């Protein structure tokens, strides 16, 4: 857990340092521009002086670039702060059970859990559980269901009434309304093992689901 916090802090510090470096480089660019402009004005032809409109235009361009650079630095600092905050929040999930996208069920002591996310109400919801050889083990008919998150539980019994051995099983869901298939997303429960940071943001390692984005976590138990 401490390692996750340290990684978060290090990343935030690195991004803040990068933003500071960019600001320093921009300041140096401004100094060079002003020195060049002053030199041009000092050495201009008195009979053909620089056009005021040209000088004003150059100053306006510098001001615009400076404003954009300051905005970028602010956004980078804000992004680093948000990433650090997300990482600290995610670290607190370690050791907890999370619900995320997946199609695995862990059977232990005759209990296994899963869930489905329905885009609309259905009049028929059937769950098929398969073993590691892809053989059907149990079909659970759950009948009509409302839209949203639907929790499901398996008691470990096969269609023949035998007790299935503990282990990892896969499940699929067939949802229908009026005889037509309805889109459904299967969700799996898994233990949060670790938290990591990448260029794409914070990721969480959740059991058999592997590395998933923080945004894909639907529930924490």
Q: What's the layout of helices and strands?
A:
Blueprint: H1 2-42, H2 52-91, E1 97-101, E2 104-107, E3 112-118, E4 124-130, E5 136-141, E6 148-154, E7 167-177, E8 180-181, E9 184-198, E10 201-206, E11 210-213, E12 219-220
Antiparallel strand pairs: 1-9, 1-12, 2-7, 3-6, 3-9, 4-5, 4-7, 7-8, 9-10, 10-11
Helix pairs in contact: 1-2
Could you describe the 3D structure shown?
The protein is α+β, with helices and mostly antiparallel strands. The protein folds into two domains: 90 residues; 124 residues, Immunoglobulin-like (Sandwich), CATH 2.60.40. The chain is 37% helix and 34% strand. It has two helices and twelve strands. The strands form two sheets. Strands 1, 3, 6, 9, 10, 11 and 12 form a seven-stranded antiparallel β-sheet that branches. Strands 2, 4, 5, 7 and 8 form a five-stranded antiparallel β-sheet that branches. A hairpin with a 3-residue loop joins strand 10 and strand 11. Helix 1 packs antiparallel against helix 2. The longest helix has 41 residues.
